[in-house]
Amino acid sequence: MAASLLLLQLLTLVTAVARGEDAEVLCSDTACYTLHRAELVWSAAQERCQHDGGNLAPAGSRAEAERLGQLLAASTAASAWIGLRLERGRCVQPQEPLRGFTWAASGEPGNYSAWLSEPHVTCLSTRCVALRPAGPHGPPGWVDRPCRAVLPAFLCKFSFRGMCGPLRLGGPGRVSYETPFGVRSPALAAAPFGTLAEVVCEEAESPAFTVCKGQPDGDSFAWQPPGPFCPSTCAHNNGGCQQLCLEAPGQPSRCACQSGYVLGPDMASCLPEDACHPNPCQGSCQPRPGGFECICEDGYVLAPDGHHCMDVDECLEGPCKHECHNTAGSFFCSCRPGYQPAGPDGHDCRDEDECAQPHACPQLCLNIPGSFRCTCRAGYQQQPGSDACLDVDECLRDPCPGPCHNFPGSFKCICPPGFLLQEDGHSCLAAPTTGEQLVDTVGTTSILQTASTTWTMGTPSPAAIPGGLTPSAPMVVGSEHSPEHGADGPRLLLYYILGSLVAILLLLAFALALLACRKRAARREKPKAKSAADNYCWVPEQPESRSRAGSERR
User: What is the pTM of this model?
Assistant: First the structure.
């Protein structure tokens, strides 16, 4: 049963050889990158990559970008599509490393970018990114293009569980690799899981096939069936062995390893008994056919010596709006004073409203970008060199026609009794009053009149008061804009009201006394005795004589 399944798999992969195409291939770690020469628009290139199980290649790190640059440099293409795209309806974000673009393979956007020029600012059209090789313009980098533009090449990425080492031959022959993503290559430094290798030996009548498969331990991969292929004597190419080639009479040659090494799953290469113990890497160690590979954590790249890891300075890509601080293996953004971090990743900054804090200023607070300013209310002025507010003594400007009383933040003008402060807060006008009409016995009439006099600026003259009385104390009237009263205001106002009432009562008492005296004098005169003649009407003589004279003339 197992043999039948293996045969079926081999037939399937052999069929794939017929449809395989030639392309530049570079495999490393658990991924393979391919360069395809075909004039396509971005969407068609992405469909080709997806049809074979991958996506247009991303460049999420500096190491990945270098692999793509190597593939493009080996070709004659002027540029090639990569998997970076800005969808219609999304706007370019100048403050972000990817400028708002996203990778076709999704995942985290990352902080790495290699823009040769800023992308076209738009929100209404789709834009796609091409990789340009190194040249007169400088190192390889990214440029944005309309997604409907046709480019001569495109780059794909395919991910796998693991890799097998190159296939070793024990004698004259050639190898052809057919990858799971449909690309044929005559030589691979590493073959991805599922790769079919066709071996044609010079002395063999038919080719041999082998497949890169996973081992039972689940952590390693090897060719099944193992090599070396095209066996001959150890005299030719050391029998295809990495270290020792052993021959025995009547038996084919076989490979062996020196002390401290063990034969690899391909039966030709030699691996250290424990290549990663002790750990020769600064990062993590991964056993590989023929040795080991050092892997660095995110934020680090492998040093040229292949053992140490170097920190990546992410701040060189400008990921922060204000300030960027590089740290070991990472970075963080900070904002200038007066701003707070914003955005889902904290890379943006927004203005902080300091005036929202309690007691930011003694009186009024004005928020400005990155800071704030304290001001004072009307009637106060700011103390030099401080935010404290001092009261302004408005009475020093002589705003009243008479006395002026200063209060915190305002002032009051003082008017005499019987006068009211006008709307302008400065003029005093006498309050209207009504006097009682007095009639004497001889028909003479005396009327107690009221005077109406206005007290204005520059003419401080009191109004005439009936009876010749002069008020003894003034009346305080606050200015309309005065927000508060002094401690002695109510007491003074009470005194002035009482004084006015006393003056009015004295006037009324004087008028009543005069009226009573007139009535009393009229009662003292006795009426004369009436006679009979009083019942007759006496005609004056002068009119009668005039009547008679008229009759005589007739």
Answer: 0.48
